[in-house]
Specification:
The protein is 45% helix and 12% strand. By secondary structure, the chain is of the alpha/beta class. Strand 3, helix 3 and strand 4 form a beta-alpha-beta unit.
């Protein structure tokens, strides 16, 4: 297996992404070795989701952030493959629309948060506002924020305020029953290149290719720094960041599924107790149906 503590960015610890291996696989030897664990987690997640819906006190929010080709889509697909679609919603956030730019930077994601009893998955999220915008701050100017007239106005205090806003929102959600799990899929530059080449050389993967992904590699170090800073400012006890090694897709999916199952287990979910009246009605319905002739 693996020690989940090795993957948590513990609050108040200043982590360095370079200290986290992108190839870590715990004690597993290969994909087949981890298969039974993923299968068991999938089956257990199906049960836990059903109880989450019936218990109706918690919502679960999963946030996936990563460099391009790290495996967000595939991880979501495999980990959530046994989940009832009625109790789960995946939202993939792209560049903000004209209407979204008329609101504060948290608005468009806040309105898509999961309700109690359901699992919400953000494929990218409000964290793009301290990642992409930090590497390319010219996007901030499109938001028409009072006092931000030029790139010179986007200073360290500006980013500190954004981190603070995110932490305060997540604390509010946590206090009102939302479980927040944040996954940074940590892929190496070498592995990203391999996956880009795979998209280029295989016709059935051409649809995944986007030239902007290649251009983003020019800013690799800037993005790594932005992720590192973001994690250090926003990994909290109530909404921790998990740094998931992503060079081996099978381990990435195993780790995410294990973390999700473990967290749901901690909630002590159970089905609501049947009231006396409900039990009486159950017995009455049983009697009526058992005596029907057709």
């Amino acid at each position: 297996m693996f020690d989940i503590n090795n993957l948590i960015a513990h609050p108040h610890n200043q982590i360095k992404l370079s200290d986290y291996s992108t190839q870590y696989v715990g004690t597993f030897t290969d994909k087949s070795d981890s298969g039974p664990v993923r299968k068991q987690n999938l089956e257990r997640l199906t049960q836990l989701q059903d109880m989450l819906y019936a218990f109706d006190k918690h919502a679960v929010l999963l946030i996936f952030q990563a460099m391009d080709a790290a495996g967000k889509d595939g991880t979501i697909k495999h980990v959530m493959s046994g989940v009832n679609p009625q109790g789960c919603e995946v939202v993939s956030f792209q560049a903000p629309s004209t209407n979204e730019l008329k609101h504060d930077f948290l608005w468009r994601t806040y309105r898509r948060l999961p309700e109690r009893g359901k699992i919400g998955i953000f494929n990218r999220s409000y964290y793009e506002e301290v990642l992409v915008t930090k590497v390319m701050p010219q996007f901030i100017l499109k938001q028409r924020i009072p006092g931000i007239r030029s790139l010179k106005d986007i200073n360290q205090n500006f980013w500190e305020e954004r981190y603070r806003s995110i932490n305060e929102m997540e604390r509010h959600l946590h206090q009102n029953g939302t479980v927040i799990l944040k996954f940074f899929l940590h892929v190496s530059r070498k592995e990203q290149k391999k996956r880009f080449m795979d998209r280029i050389l295989k016709a059935d993967k051409h649809w995944k290719f986007d030239m902007s992904d290649i251009e983003s590699r020019d800013n690799w170090d800037k993005f790594q720094n932005a992720y590192e800073t973001m994690i250090n400012h926003t990994s909290t006890n109530y909404a921790p960041w998990y740094i998931i090694p992503a060079d081996h897709k099978w381990f990435m999916r195993t780790a995410v599924s294990q973390i999700l199952v473990d967290k749901l287990e901690e909630l002590d979910l159970h089905y609501p107790k049947v009231t006396k009246l409900q039990q009486e009605n159950i017995e009455k319905a049983k009697q009526i149906l058992s005596t029907e002739k057709k």
